[in-house]
Amino acid sequence: SPGSSPPRMRNRLLAALPAAELERILPHLARVPIRRRQVLQEPHVPSPYAYFIERGAVSVMARTKADGPVG
After folding, report:
1. Cα 6 to Cα 61: distance, rounded to the nearest angstrom
2. Is residue 70 pLDDT above 60, yes or no?
3. Predicted structure pTM score
């Protein structure tokens, strides 16, 4: 609502945004549960989403043809 402050963000990147910018993107954000070991993006498949992790840890794993898994 106009004049109210945006909700407190637990994600540090989102929390660092100026209030006006955060208000602009808030309608496009949704909290979604993520399970342990859930794959968020498959190789060579564009992701339709961006994930802003609020708590916990995530790992990035990449594969190369020559070397196999890299993490």
Report:
1. 34
2. no
3. 0.68
